Amino acid sequence: MRQVLLIDFGSTYTKLTAVDLDAPRVVATAQARTTADSDISTGLNEGLALLEKEAGPFRFEARLACSSAAGGLNMVASGLVPSLTAKAAKLAAFGAGAKVIQSYAYQLTREDAEEIAEIRPDILLLTGGTDGGNQETILHNARRVAGIPLSFPVIVAGNRSAREECAEILSPSPHPVFCADNVMPEMNRLVIEPVQQVIRQVFLERIISAKGLSETQTLLDGILMPTPSAVLEGLKLLAGGSNKRAGLGDLVAVDLGGATTDVYSIADGFPTRANTMLKGLAEPRVKRTVEGDIGMRFGARGVLEAVGEEAFGRLTGLSEDIIEQVVAKYGAHPEALPTNPDEEKVDFALAVFALRTALARHAGTLEKVYTPVGPMYQQTGKDLTCSRRLIVTGGALIYTGLLGNIIREALVQDDPWVLTPREMLWRCDQGYILSAMGLLSGYGRDAALELLLGAFGKEEEDAACK
Amino acid sequence: MDRKTIILGVIGADVHAVGNQILNYAFTDAGFHVVNLGVMVSQEEFIEAAIESAADAIVVSSLYGHGELDCQGLRDKCDEAGLKGILLYVGGNIVVGKQPFDQVEERFRQMGFDRIFGPGTSPEEGIQALKEDLGVA
Questions:
Q1: CATH assignment of A3-69, among 3.90.1170.30, 3.30.420.40, 2.30.110.10, 3.30.559.30
Q2: Does the fold of domain A74-207 match that of domain A3-69?
Q3: Where are the beta strands (DSSP E) in A175-249?
Q4: Chain A, 287-346: which have a CB under 8 Å from a chain B CB?
Q5: Phi–psi pair at B99, nearest 5 degrees
Q6: Measured between CB atoms, does B10 come within 8 Å of chain A?
């Protein structure tokens, strides 16, 4: 029996999954508190003991881990025009599994530099200019960043013509410098894979040890990637399949957390309506966005602000005062669970509106333009209206008894110009299978795909999850 | 890399794509680096493209008669965006109906355009003008 251990060092829990590659099947799962502030292996060993008790003993031929412990991978992104290179930089960082704490457009000011110093990012991404285009801004920004008296890796991925000079400007500074291909080498063309590879390499080589996570290396074959990146790998495999088995096709996934909400889509999102033209930056097929103000607890206030008291009142039937009280309580006590029917209603509404808002911000929009040849439509971003499969995860969704209702309600979108999915077959990732299989995909691809299809692709369950 | 960069596009809600393709071909063939934004291009898109690609000129086409409305304020926005003194051309069927061209030219000059081309202008004329204004041999 070939056994592999998959570990997700989360911010709160370390989740372990033991897989038998030959069957293939998940043999056992366990979780223990993450001990990132002391020695992270304490929590890991606790989890291992639980795992052994459940189905041991094990002889793992590989131990693979992803991590969002110690705050995850925090990045600052900078670009030139907000809707072009600054957006490209953000998309690249999100797609590499990072949290983008702040993003900047145009020239960095002294205050911006001070703010970056306070943020202390794990990585700073410098972009700007198409190849052969604007050099002034990225060079100015390189000088600003060089003047920040800290040491964090800087990745230069802007105008090719300015790359060497940027590296020269930064090389006397304490920041280690890495270069990658331009994120937008020509207008509206996004090239983010090369920079994402560099981000991953920097994560592996520097961030892990900087966060004190490397002591566990003796126990592991390495922390391979940030957790969101593992989720993306899992989704990519599930959507695309292998040369032996077909995948499920286009997918959308949402991870609803306490403070933030992640949305993933594996879809081209090309126009589905006649007379529609794509406008602006072409978005990547594999896209991740993070809504930093949308969540069930710390993010509850953000949800309320995004949709307004009125919508909340309509869905819950509660007065503004009560809603206000509960949201305030949740913001202050992230561990709180609903204790009465009113709080349950607010919890339900929070989940619905968080999902709906995060999906709307992730998806593209449509605009009607009247032309001499009749009405035409301009699409910005991805059209996900025809995406049919949704995977949700996050404690609030896993443990609710009302998941079907939440999803049905969340997919209602009155605004015809917002291109969110409307009808979906859904599944809940209760056992954090996506990240585990994303990790496994680099080691045992076929086994990972089979387990993913087993968890999310059973046709007989489709009817029940409409 | 000392090729001059020009931003090309059809402004507003205008969907006339043929002339745009011809100009793209002709300008590229004449040695310019053309960033072609295609049809239905807003003022903001012209400007953002010019910033990112450090363009030397913006060449605006319009065929459907609304060009005068679509082009208003483009020079001001360029100034605001730091594209001070960027070369601005406009050409095509840029006003409603048949009007004396010298009057049309004057109005567009007031709006900040450096060169204004009427209907039926050949691509060569535009190329010649670009070469003169950008100092290309």
A1: 3.30.420.40
A2: no
A3: 177-179, 223-226
A4: none
A5: -125, 155
A6: no
Is the bond preceding residue A185 a cis peptide, omega within 30 degrees?
Answer: no
Q: Which two tokens stand for residue A227?
A: 């957790």
- Determine the Cα–Cα distance for residues B113 and A287; give it in Å rounded to an integer: 40
Dihedrals phi, psi of A304, to nearest 5 degrees: -60, -45
User: Is the pTM above the cut of 0.95?
Assistant: no
Compute the distance between CA of residue B132 and CA of residue A262 in angstroms, rounded to an integer: 53
Instruction: Quote the CA–CA distance of A109 and A451 in Å, as a whole number.
Output: 50
Over the stretch A303-335, which tens digit does the pLDDT of each residue have?
999 999 999 999 999 999 999 999 999 989 888
**Which structure tokens are listed for A149?**
């008296």
In the sheet where B87-92 sits, what is the strand order? B33-36, B5-10, B57-62, B87-92, B115-117
Nearest to B93 by CA among B80, B79, B108: B108
3-class SS of residue A154: strand
Task: Tell me which architecture the domain covering A74-207 has in CATH.
Answer: 3-Layer(aba) Sandwich (3.40)
Question: Per the structure block, which two tokens stand in for A58?
Answer: 């094990």
> What structural domains does chain B harbor?
31-67+80-137 (3.40.50.280)
Buried b / exposed e along A422-444 (16+ C-beta atoms within 10 A): eebbbbbbeebbbbbbbbbbebb
Q: How do residues A54-107 score in pLDDT, each as one tens digit?
A: 887 889 998 998 988 767 789 999 999 999 999 999 999 999 989 899 999 999
- Diameter of chain A measured on Cα atoms: 74
With CB atoms and an 8 Å threshold, state whether A134 touches B53: yes
pLDDT in the model for residue B116 = 97
| Identity of the residue in B37, B39, B54 whose CB atom sits nearest the CB atom of A129 | B54
Asked if B16 reaches chain A (Cβ–Cβ under 8 Å), the answer is: no
Looking at this predicted complex, what is its ipTM?
0.81
Task: Parse chain A into domains and list their residue ranges.
Answer: 3-69, 74-207, 251-465
**Which of A187, A189, A191, A277 has the highest number of chain B CBs within 10 A, making it the mutation to test binding with B?**
A187
